[in-house]
Each structure stands twice: as structure tokens, then as C-alpha cells.
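Exercise 3.2. Students should predict the tertiary structure of the chain below and write it as C-alpha cells, then compare their answer with the key that follows.

Predict this chain's 3D structure.
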Amino acid sequence: MLTVSRPHRHDVLIAAVGLSGGLALWLIGLHMQGPRPFDEPWMALVPLAVMAGLELLRRSAPLTALLVAVPALVADQFTVGSLATVLMFTDVVYAAVVYGSPAVARRIPVASFLVTVGVAIGFLAWFRTAEALLIGVVTGLVSFAPAITGVSVRNHRDAAETARLRADQTALLAEMDRAQAVTAERARMARELHDMVANHLSAIAIHSTAALSIDDPGTSREALGVIRENSVEGLAEMRRLIGLLRHSGTEDGPSAAPTLASLDVLVEQARTNGATSGLTCTLEDARGKPERLPAPVELAAYRIVQESLTNALKHAAPGPVVVRLAREDDVLSVDVTSEFGSRPGPRAPGSGAGLVGMRERVALLGGTIAAGPEPAADGRKTWRVRAELPVGERTMRE
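Answer key:
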């Protein structure tokens, strides 16, 4: 079923103006030509009305309008003629190039140029006077000039549309980058929050359970002391994290990133928290003379040790918890071992987010990490976390 779209309001306006202008010229008797085969003045109104009707199709069916407009213009030449008919024809040619298909837009200028040249040569051969070239000039102004104008306008519109699409694509990519940056920042904040607070909350959970389950005033007092100490330190860590987020991007903001120089404090704190569970935490630094490493490496190593000590406090059986640091060439190795097995007494539940966070930190630096049980020399099993972090500038991803 053939469907015809409604004419655009601008096309209706152009058709109305063209028709009314042609009628006005006809009423005052202003014609373009002298005696013609159909020299009755009213005969010029037929091509005028047809051309005005074709203006309604200049957007919806531009090629059809042009194919009908050509014989209408030729028919107008056999009447006294109307300037409005010729002007509307030029607009139909222009619209066919602008609103037609790409193939039509390419062919119309070529065809109009060939028609212009053919008309000029034909009339020059017929009249054999130089004035005959003026007919070719007029033909070019009526057909070729509006076609070239349409090509120029269409090219500008296509360039503008391409620029708009490129801008939309750039905006979409920027939004995707922003969303990825927000997701990465949220993941980083989640890792920091987990690593900073989980250790203290695990100690609080274990010692509060011990205080509730063991009916001994001394044990309860000792547990409450550990709970208070971890609560104060956890609150301080939270304040430091909030301060870092609040002053992020400023030169005078607080630096909340811990370094390997403070590992001894972290291990000492873990030793205190794990004493009631039979854990003995020690630090072995085999790096020789410690040197300052890139900040992302020091932060990742510190958080790996912190999370490993937190997991030991939650799950390790009574025994030694050893933290070892070593450096070989451009690789910093972090090794944390603890007794693997069940233990008596209260235990804090785990969510598995700590291991995920450690893997994410190591992956961001291009390193490797392994965590799991391993057989020990005495036949027992140990839980071992070993991470290797590149410290060379060429292997850094941050």
C-alpha cells in the first residue's frame, strides 16, 4: 500500500507563495515571452499550478517532483510564461539534490551540466549567432546553478551531521570513561575501607565473644581493653580515610597512605590482638637496607600484610604468624604464613572480600599472588600468602 507523507509546513508555504506570486504577475499582465503556440494568457496558469503542486513534494518525493517539473517547465515555454514557474523549478532542482538519495544528488549536477552544454551548442548551431549562447547561460542558471548550490548545502549538512555523531560518540566514550573511573574509585575505596577497618573489627568481634563466653573478670577486663584499643584505632583509621577522601586532589591534604616503615607497628598490634588466640606474630625483613619504594607498591604491600594478619586473626590455628619481606632485582616479595587448621575459642566470620581485594591490588601493579594451604617441613599444614610486586618503572601500571 502506497503511503504519502504529509507535506512539510515550509513546503506548503513555498508552494503558496509561488502560486500567489505567479497569479499576481498574471493579473498585472507581466509575462516572460512573446507570442507562443499557446498564447492565451490563462494557459500559463497550468504549468504554474503544476509547479506549485510539485513544491509540496520537494521533501517527501524530490525525484518524482523533479521528473514532473521538467516537462512542466518545457510546457511553460510554449505559453507566454511565468517568472514564478521558473523560480519554483529552480527550487525543485535544489530540493532534489538536498533531499534526494546520494545517487540522485550525484547525478543531477552532472545531468544539468550536460543539458546546459547541449542546449548552448544546439541553439548556437541552429541560430548561428553568438547571442544563442545566452540561452545556454539561462539554462545553466535555471538548472545547473541550483544543483551546484544543493550539492554545497548537502555537503555542509553531511559534515555537520558527521560532526554531531562524532561529538555524540565522544560524549558516550567520555561517559563510559567516567563510569569506569567511578567504578574503579569505588573499588579502591572498598579495598581501603576493608583493609583499614577489618583488622580492628575482627579483634573486637573475637575479644567481645571471649568476654561474653568466659565468666572470668580478669579475662573480661583484658578483652575489654583490647576492644577499646581497637575501637579507638579503628576510629582513627576511619577519620584518616575520610580526611584523605575529603582532601583528595589538593596539595595540602593529609597523606593517609601507609608505608612499609610502619609494618612493625602493624605486626605488633596483630601480636597483641592474637595473644589470646595463641598467635605469635613476627616480622622478618630480608631487604637489607630498606629503601623507599614507589607509593603504590608500598601501599599494596602494606595492605596485603594487613589483610593476611586479619585473616590469621580470624582463622589461623594457634602458632607462629610470620611476615617476610624480600627484594630481588626489581621484585618485592611479601610472604605471610600461619598455622592452618581449626582452633578452639571464638572466631570472626569472613566474607572473602579480603582475598579479592589483594588480587585486585596485585593485578593493578602487574604482579602475582598466590594464597592457600601448603605442607610444612614438620608434616603440618600452613596457610601461605605470597605476592610478588614489580617495583621497576617499566613494569608499573600506575
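Discussion points: The longest helix spans residues 133-213. Residues 62 and 96 are 5 Å apart (CA to CA).
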